[in-house]
Amino acid sequence: MQASGIAPLEQDYKWRATAEGDTVVMLLQTARYLVKSADTARQGNVDKLAGLTACLAPMAEAGFKPLDHAPAPVADVEAFRQLPYLLALFEFRARTQVYFLANSMWTRMAEGETFDQAWTALTLKACRTGQSHVLYFMLSKFIEMVDQCEDPACKAVISDVCSLFALSDIIGGQQWAGLLDMNQVEMAEQATGLVCDALRPEAVALVDAWDFPDRALNSTIGNEAGDVYEQQYKAAVTSPLNAKKVPGFFEAIKEHLNMDFLAQRNGTDPTYGGPGNDDYPDAEAVEGVPLSASRSRL
């Protein structure tokens, strides 16, 4: 294999081998920066808040209470899938969780703990708070790209994809407890259903748009050709796990088998196995009965 062919394989493999540890470290570093930004806001230096940390500016208010800055609840399900409202919710969560993390840090340090001691005790909360901020960042950039789309039909579809990204986190993500009431959670679930209904006709085109090669997917049910049953059969027949019989297996299931029916599975259909088909070789026969069979007989 040439070097040019190895590079994509390395790119596909290396992130899988290192992503988990790298992600946790970077989330903690993000949370540490957010705590520092929260302290900057508390001191009233809101002009020094950079980028999306500007959402922490309300923390400069005396007696700041996170829930006082919650977005006004929408009146109907359709409004819940609108991107500006979803972005406001993600901003609200990020600001609230940063406040709780920073306040816990300040409280512990006021009670005599060092920064490192307080931080060690709060690393799980810090990791989740960093993730909440990253998701807020991702949604904001996603919406920016939607706004830049000039094709109306394409914009409508990716707008729904963006909504689904946000809604799926709201109904299954972390750190939303206490921020949304029961009615809002119910509307989020209903809005998710509406978005899925809208995207269903576009599902195949959206998946194809990612252009993942079969080499990377390594999937029998997700390959480009779509021949699911044929690929699953081929994978089962050629798997090293099926290279030999499992001792006692046939004896254990024989009483449950229709041997007259199995005797008809003689590989007469060359599409799915039997003589003359090299792609779908016969599996090891059990008591003279070939295991290859056409899909229509299963």
Structural features, described:
It is a single chain. The chain has helices at residues 3-42, 77-80, 83-110, 115-121, 123-148, 152-172, 182-199, 203-210, 214-217, 228-238, 249-253, 259-262. By secondary structure, the chain is mostly helical. The model is unreliable at 1-6 and 270-298 (pLDDT under 50). Helix 5 runs antiparallel to helix 6 (152-172). The chain is built from 12 helices and no strands. The relative contact order is 0.07. It folds into 2 domains: 20-210, Butyryl-CoA Dehydrogenase, subunit A, domain 3; 228-297, no CATH class. Helix content is 59%, strand content 0%. The longest helix has 40 residues, at 3-42. The two termini are 40 Å apart.
Q: Tell me what portion of residues adopts beta-strand conformation.
A: under 5%
Instruction: Quickly give the CATH architecture of the largest domain.
Output: Up-down Bundle
Uncertain residue ranges: 1-6, 270-298
Name the overall outline. Answer: elongated
The percent range for helix content is 55-70%
What is the SS-derived class?
Answer: mainly alpha
Distance between the termini: 40 Å
Descriptive key words:
mainly alpha; Butyryl-CoA Dehydrogenase, subunit A, domain 3; 2 domains; single chain; 298 residues; disordered N terminus
Write the layout of secondary structure elements.
Blueprint: H1 3-42, H2 77-80, H3 83-110, H4 115-121, H5 123-148, H6 152-172, H7 182-199, H8 203-210, H9 214-217, H10 228-238, H11 249-253, H12 259-262
Helix pairs in contact: 1-3, 1-5, 3-5, 3-6, 5-6, 6-7
